[in-house]
Amino acid sequence: MVSAVTQSSTQPTALSQEALKERGEYLVTIGACSDCHSPKLAPTDKIPPMTPDPDRYLSGHPASDKLPPMPAGAGKNGWMMFNMNNTAAVGPWGVSFSANLTPDPTGIGNWTLDNFKKALREGKYKGMDNTRQILPPMPWPHYSKMKDEDLEAIFTYLKSIKPVKNVVPAPIPPAV
């Protein structure tokens, strides 16, 4: 469990579940997780571009979204491209889709804290041994340096948000 040092003592005290969730929400917000893991609302004069859809917050690339046609050589010409929702990316690795981070079984609902740590520390898909690497643009190598306390806080927060059923498409390998 995450701990904090109190002013009157140097002994760590365990954070409550509420404090863990608050810390996790803060870390998810400053980490900009919703930039890639949340579908966006259509911009209007009152909704700025790239505003996360609160009904699909952190639910990953929508299973029903079809990608527009890609130019020939996409991902092989030194460029990386994103779709309009910022939930799909194409590069030399092929096409990758942002994961569902909600506590639904189609997201991280069946994950343990150990799965979460393995995913972010080792870049293992679904946090399981003998699985593929998490693909770009997910910057898991940067997150691999996070403290256990922060990973636990993020996981606690993600497990507390609204579950959204969304089976994210499988990656598409690069065309030969």
Number of DSSP-assigned strands: 5
CATH class of one domain: Mainly Alpha
The total count of helices amounts to: 5
CATH fold naming of one domain: Cytochrome Bc1 Complex, Chain D, domain 2
What is the radius of gyration computed over CA atoms, rounded to a whole number of angstroms?
A: 18 Å
Mean pLDDT: 92
Strand content is 5-15%
Largest beta sheet, briefly? 3 strands, antiparallel
CATH architectural name of one domain? Orthogonal Bundle
Give the class from helix and strand content and strand pairing: alpha+beta
Helix share bin: 25-40%
User: Would you identify the regions where 5 or more consecutive residues have pLDDT less than 50?
Assistant: none
Query: Which word captures the global form?
Result: globular
Topology order in helix (H) and strand (E) letters: EEHHEEEHHH
Q: CA-to-CA gap between the ends?
A: 47 Å
* Widest sheet, order of strands: 3-4-5
What does this structure look like?
The protein is an alpha+beta fold. It has helices at residues 17-30, 33-37, 113-122, 140-143, 148-160; strands at 3-5, 12-14, 81-82, 88-91, 94-97. The longest helix is centred in the N-terminal third of the chain and has 14 residues, at 17-30. A hairpin with a 2-residue loop joins strand 4 (88-91) and strand 5 (94-97). It has a domain at 17-39 and 51-62 and 73-159: Orthogonal Bundle (Cytochrome Bc1 Complex, Chain D, domain 2), CATH 1.10.760. The mean pLDDT is 92. The protein has a three-stranded antiparallel beta sheet, with no helix packed on it. It has a two-stranded antiparallel sheet with strand order 1-2. The protein is globular and about 60 Å long.
